[in-house]
Amino acid sequence: EKSSYRYWVRQATGEAAPPPVPRKLDPSAANGGGGNPNALGSVWNQAGTWEEKNLNSWANGRIKDLLGSLGSLDFSTGKASIDEVSKCSGDAFLVTVRNKKRVGYNYELSLRFKG
Question: Which positions fall inside the Activator of Hsp90 ATPase AHSA1-like N-terminal domain (predicted)?
Answer without folding.
Answer: 52-115
